[in-house]
Amino acid sequence: MGWLRHGSFTSHLHGAALLCAAVAVAAFLASCGGRGSVAVETVPAVQQGFGLPLEPNLRAGDVILSDGTKVPAAGVRDITVDQIAVAVGVVYDPSGRRMVGLRQGRNLQWAPVSSPGYSMRFKQSKDDGSLNWAVVQRRRKSGWNVDSYYPAFNFAQSYQGAGLYDGGWYLPAVNELKTLYGARAAVGESLERVTGEPLELGWYWSSTMKKGASSYAYYIGAEEGFPVRANKGVRTLVLAVHSF
Questions:
Q1: What is the rounded CA–CA span in Å between residue 240 and residue 244?
Q2: Number of other CB atoms surrounding residue 7 within 10 Å
Q3: How many CA atoms lie within 13 A of 66 on its CB side?
């Protein structure tokens, strides 16, 4: 009997607690305007992995990190040592989703005079350097040595990033270099923040040959911004780019 009376008392207390809780919930919902759900405030993008999500607002000068995140160009002055350690490139074409690698090749020829590629004609693209590399590969011959026959191509295609962008780099086509020139201020500032080296003022090889002139290809000056044909044996600067 004592146990039954204690149980009845406990049941009354439990019921009272549930009633109070129900009243509190009803009052809270009423304070929310009678809605059955609570509005959640939208918060700005936060770091995911090493940096921020690529989208929205991808811009020239954004620093791409190896896990597919970014440091925005507007915040590149605050980039951390840890982020620099995993940086792989800088965006130069946001709409085309292309970036340029952090390291530059120097004193490299398009093709030495002694190589088959010096006098060989290739049907090439002005807009997509990855297609030009595919054309060069299809003309492979026995004893073919990309390192000695095509030094500029070799620098780009063997360029190593990291993480998601370890491979897939290529020598940019002439119009890709022109786009890069248009974004040179933002790209140069970010490169200097990450590597300590801005874009140089010299001439950069494109992967596009001069039509009708087998021993000439185009390069573009970082200061001038327009393509000029040059003998393939000229030694100059090289960049590697990547689509993402």
A1: 13
A2: 10
A3: 13
Structural contact between residues 170 and 207, judged by C-beta atoms closer than 8 angstroms: yes
Q: Report the chain's C-alpha Rg in angstroms.
A: 30
Domain boundaries, the chain: 1-42, 53-243
Eight-state DSSP code of residue 98 = E
CA angle 210, 156, 112 (to 5 degrees): 50
pTM: 0.79
The whole-number mean pLDDT for each consecutive block of 10 residues of the chain, a chain of 244 residues, reads 37 40 43 43 57 96 98 97 98 98 98 88 89 83 76 95 97 97 97 94 94 90 88 98 97
Cα separation, 49 vs 47, in Å, equals: 6
How far apart, in Å, are the Cα atoms of 114 and each of 145, 150, 215? 12, 11, 11
